[in-house]
Amino acid sequence: MFNILRSLLRYSDGNAPNPGSFQWGFEVDADGQSQGSRREWFKLALQPEAYSNSFGLKDKYRSRIPHYDESQCARMIIDYLRSMKTAFDMLMRRRHANQMRTEFTITVPAIWTERSKDNMRAYAAQAGMGTKSTIQIIKEPEAAGIYALVKMAGLGLELDDTFVFCDAGGG
Fold this sequence. Notes:
Blueprint: E1 8-11, E2 22-24, H1 27-30, E3 39-40, H2 48-51, H3 57-60, H4 70-95, E4 105-108, H5 114-126, E5 136-139, H6 140-151
Helix pairs in contact: 4-5
């Protein structure tokens, strides 16, 4: 839907993260600079033990699995979410002249612990998306299931009908 929503960052000095300027989303690839300074998959650092050997991700995507400490991870997530919120606010102002009340729901991997989800909620609050108590967290497979059910509304599903939903994510 929005190309700007790719989870990519590039900090101006090439080091991640710092309080200086950065590019995010499609801007990272748009200028043709080296791919080497890209920062991606940084949210995985919120729960590194889940990805260290799970699903073969560490071996298959060794160059992409982040090696950031908790403060670096936090800074990148906050920077990314703040940028996303700013873009969303600009879009809403263009499309809707009046102020609309917004609530944010963030999807996270199904295997995340409560601590990781709480950290994400705190980072979203620091990014200006609301307070920890107003920001919703939902597991990615649940969000996909809800989306699928909404899209299937015209198929005549009835109570006690069964359907299979496969979350085949994980890289």
